[in-house]
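Example record

One chain of 60 residues, shown exactly as stored in the release files.
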Amino acid sequence: PDDDSAVRRALESLAAEGYAEAELDQIGDMDGIPDDEPHISAFQGALEGEVSIVTFDVPI
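Predicted structure tokens for this chain:
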């Protein structure tokens, strides 16, 4: 999908998982397969047409 559609799908998926708000730091194309989990699983899911989101616990 285009960037706007990808952002909308990501936010809808997060809302469905119970997130009240989200901050998307970066969106774009990846150069190759990532080296580490959970990025590898997210990459594979995206190739299969799933919405793939990697979250990090950051203190507020």
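Notes: Residues 3-16 form the longest helix (14 residues).
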